[in-house]
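INTERNAL AUDIT FORM
Audit reference: QA-55
Scope: verify that the stored structure record matches its stored sequence.
Auditor: D.O.
Record contents follow.
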Amino acid sequence: MIKKIYKTEAEWKKILTPEQFHIMRERGTEPPGSCGLSYPKGESIYYCSACGLALFKSSEEFQSGTGWPSFYKPFREDHLIYEDDFTLGIKRTEVKCAQCLSHLGHVVLMPGHLNIANYMEKATFAAGCFWRVEAEFKRLKGVAETFAGYSGGKAKNPNYFQVSLGWTGHAEAVEIIYDPLVVTYSELLEVFWRIHDPTQLNRQGPDIGNQYRSVIFFHNFQQEKLAGESKEKLEKSGRYRNKIVTEIIPAGEFYKAEEYHQKYYEKQGIKSCGY
C-alpha cells in the first residue's frame, strides 16, 4: 500500500520549479521532444519529481512517436493511478503518481497514433537469427518497438559470444511491444510461423546451434492458449512433412543484446529478409 503525501499548492510551489508545478500540479503539458529524458544511456529509473517515487524503468520505454517519454508498464502497478479525463471533450486517461497525486501525463487513444503505456502488450519469439526475426516484426503496423536479445537459458547477463558457444541455454530472441488494437497476437503468430521452418531442431537455415531453436515465449495464459492452438492447427494442416519442434514455454528473463545487434538490418540497409 502506497502511503499518500498531501501538501497544499503553496507548499508544492516551494518544492517544485515553476515548470514542474505547472505540469504536475496544474496538469500542464511540456512541448514534445523538450524534456531530453527519452532513451537515457544504460539502465535508468524515472522518479516522480515531486515525491521521489519510482515510476518507470528505461528498459521498458518505447518509441511512441509522440515526442514524450512513453512506457509499456510502470515500475510497479500500485505506483500509478489512472483517472478518466474529459477536459478536451474526448475521453482520455490521466496518469498520476500514486503517492503525491501529481499529474504525469495521459494514456491517449487516437486514430493514427499508437496507444501509450497500459494499452501496449508484449510478445517474445525465437526463430533463428534475431537480425532477421526483428526485421520481419518491426515492419508490421501496430508494432511499436522491437528488441533483439537472449532468453530461455539460465546464464545471467549473457553476451553474444557466450550465447554463440551454445552453453548458456539462451536462444536468440526478439521482444515485441505491440498495440493489440492494431495487430493481434494471433497475427503475430502467423508471422512467426511464416518466417522460419519450425521443423528444424536447433538450427535455422545455415545457422546451427541451440541458440537458433524455435520458441514461443508466452507472457500470459491467453498467449499460451493461442500459441498452442496455432501450433496444433499447423500440425494438422499437412504443410510440413516433419514434426514441428517449436517449444511453447513461459517467458523468463529477457536480456537485450548488444547495441550493434539492435535493428541490424535497418542499420545495414538490408531490405531482403530471406535466407
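Auditor finding: record pair retrieved intact. Confidence is low (pLDDT under 50) at residues 109-118.
Action required: none
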